[in-house]
């Protein structure tokens, strides 16, 4: 998952350039960067033609699924809490949101 642009350097020391946008991206929001991620970065991803974005907010415990349509982001779904979801563009995968928040359950006790 990535956006067209300059990436890491090659072994020869030249910049590696990606030639096309990634299929999807996932941003983990934090209070200090949420506005930048939502406004500035999403605009860049739209400009580069990334068709899908997931915004994960660990404090709000939400997963927003966005799809790029006609150059604008549309929120297709907002999942919250400890839901178990199958969502675009990876609906073949079941995702336990609790795993994102660290609430998968109690760890088994170790003997002794």
Q: What can you tell me about this protein's structure?
A:
With about 110 residues, the protein is of the alpha+beta class. It has a single domain (about 20-100), classed as tt1808, chain A (Alpha-Beta Complex), CATH 3.90.1570.10. It has 2 helices and 8 strands, in the order E-E-E-H-E-E-E-E-E-H. It has helices spanning about 35-50, 95-100, and strands spanning about 5-10, 15, 25-30, 50-55, 60-70, 70-80, 85, 95. The strands form 3 sheets. A 4-stranded mixed beta sheet has the order 3-4-5-6, covered by helices on one side. Strands 1-2 form a two-stranded antiparallel sheet. The longest helix is centred in the middle third of the chain and has 15 residues, at about 35-50. Residues about 1-5 and about 105-110 have low confidence and may be disordered.
Q: Largest sheet, if any?
A: 4 strands, mixed
**Tally of extended strands?**
8
End-to-end separation: 44 Å
What's the architecture in CATH terms? Alpha-Beta Complex
Shape: globular
Radius of gyration: 17 Å
Mean pLDDT: 82
The strand order across the widest sheet is 3-4-5-6
- Give the CATH class: Alpha Beta
Low-confidence stretches: 1-7, 106-110
Protein structure class: alpha+beta
* CATH topology category name: tt1808, chain A
The proportion of strand residues reads 25-35%
| CATH homologous superfamily identity | tt1808, chain A
Order of helices and strands: EEEHEEEEEH
H/I helix tally: 2
């Amino acid at each position: 998952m990535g956006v067209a642009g300059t990436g890491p350097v090659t072994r020869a020391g030249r910049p590696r350039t990606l030639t096309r946008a990634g299929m999807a991206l996932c941003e983990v929001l934090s209070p200090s960067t949420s506005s930048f991620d939502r406004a500035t970065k999403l605009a860049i991803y739209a400009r580069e033609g990334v068709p899908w974005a997931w915004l994960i907010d660990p404090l709000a415990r939400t997963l927003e699924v966005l799809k790029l349509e006609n150059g604008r982001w549309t929120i297709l779904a907002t999942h919250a809490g400890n839901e178990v979801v199958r969502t675009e563009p990876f609906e073949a995968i079941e995702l336990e949101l609790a795993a994102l928040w660290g609430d998968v359950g109690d760890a088994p006790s170790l003997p002794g």
